[in-house]
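Researcher: I'd like a structural prediction for the single chain below. Treat it as a standalone chain; there are no partners to consider.
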Amino acid sequence: MTDLIKSRLNKNFKKQMHYLTLVFNDFFILALIFLFGALMFWYAQNIKKWPNNLWFYKPLLALIWTATLGIGHFATLFDRADEHFLFNQDN
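Model: Treating it as a single chain, here is the predicted structure.
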């Protein structure tokens, strides 16, 4: 059982590393860092000017969280069941 889990973990890790090396290269990460820093600087400068407790803050926050969680999906290590575990073990 532990060998099966290890093999599925290794297969998933290889798949994720292949994807990450294609998408998250050095220049992309540097651009993301600068964009995130600029966004945080703008936010820090402008939050002082915003009014407190407007009625639409809570629904807007709920909408943002729902959209953020809806875009992604949970990664699982589930594959089709192996035949070994489907056989009856009646003795």
